[in-house]
Amino acid sequence: MTLREKTNLKKNNFDRKSGILLHITSLPSSSMDGIGTLGREAYAFVDFLKRAGQTLWQILPLGPTGYGDSPYASSSSFAGNPLLIDLNSLVEKNWACKDDIVCPDFIKTEGNVDYGAVVFWKIPVLYKCASYFLENACEKDKLEYESFKKSNKLWLDDFALFTNIKEFYDKKAQSENVTGSMSCWNVFWPKNLARHEKEALKNWTKEHSSGLELIKVIQFFFFSQWFALKKYANENNIKIIGDIPIFVAAESADLWANQQLFQLNRKTLAQKTCAGVPPDYFSATGQLWGNPLYDWKAIKESSWLWWINRIKHMMKLTDIVRIDHFRGFEAYWKVPYGETTAVNGKWAKGPGVELFEAVKAKCKGAEIIAEDLGLITPKVKALRDKCGFPGMKILQFAFNENEWNEESGKNAYLPENFEAENCVVYTGTHDNNTTLGQLKDCPARYAENVRRWLKLEDSAGYEELTEGLVKSAFESKAKYCIILMQDVLLKDSDCRMNTPSSCTGNWSWRMKKGELTEEKAQWLKELSCQSHRNAF
Question: Which pLDDT score, from 0 to 100, does residue 13 have?
């Protein structure tokens, strides 16, 4: 970095921030749960960020996880994930009975998340806790709960109904040995419920009021704990970067309650189309995600209300919002429903700048990051720049020759080639290998390229290269620098968070207790100071 560049960084140091990407599920659990929660370890992580001089904490979507345990396949864009609720905290507030949360032997207190075991044990326990709350909470807490229901009525009633009806018919499907898609809401439910008919829902609510109430209490638990954690982070000068998947899941309250906003067959309720990405050098058949696609004409005719409400909701939950698969707002890959690959899809026009003009008008002060990775055309870049959103730069891509930018003759992910400061640099994201794992698993040429770019000796090992890339991310001119927690801890491939197109073994990595050392904190703090980030 030249003296002139360092001088410019000093002038803009209040704009330059850095932080860590770590999802809640990856935190160690304090004593039970089998999964990271919103309890003591989350607060301890905030304390670590403060000691480390970091001011950003990026997480993954907070909704209930769906197919493959993915936070990007949630049953709701608005609800919180019950698995993240900290049970000990409920007991401390007298919202639960200690005898109801005794952890069974099959729940792992350390190691990767076993979602099947956690769901099997924790969801019934949360229903017990919710029942205890309704019977024993003090008047003040009950008034707080009533206020929560009122302020979240926009989505809460439909989410509770969807969850309750799904639980009922999932059990029915299991008893009748129905498997696969036959148990889905648009196939297995009675048509009047599947069509979200008011009279049918009114009758269901009368007959299942107690079960619906428990679901709402569990959501109250989640949001009470989340907002307390966010308040603590903000008080310690740490902003939280949230994540919005562009698409919703097929098995979601979003689709069920807003059928007119999606490309559905109105008679059968089956999807007409589904989302994916076209064939590329990663996959000869593309990626078939299967998500239902929006009817953007209908959404526009509704004054973009559903998307505006979604952004507003995220603005309450987080300080900065990352929107996944931003290129889909310019054009998206549209695959006929029933296809087994994404090969026979075609590009369809997205809503473009109109949507974001409406969002900016109604969501004052929203700070949005565009995930502009993948097949990014000049039109996608123009949309991003017209919206004024920072894009993403992944250092791991800088040394992959397939990512060479043919227009400029330079790799766009190398820091010296960043077009502007208005971007966010990452070593890697949740969809990438860890940097150490990438260096080890790629052909030797990859590590050689990194070594040469960092100007290190041939003897420099993979850990030294990883630390060099982290340092380079901090020193880059990008406005924000976000480092994968696994890269801070120098973790190998077995600690990767997600492998796209793989259905098993994802989203489960967890830190071990004691890994947030003072040595790591001081290293990060020094990097922030040297690169003039976080107001140092």
Answer: 46
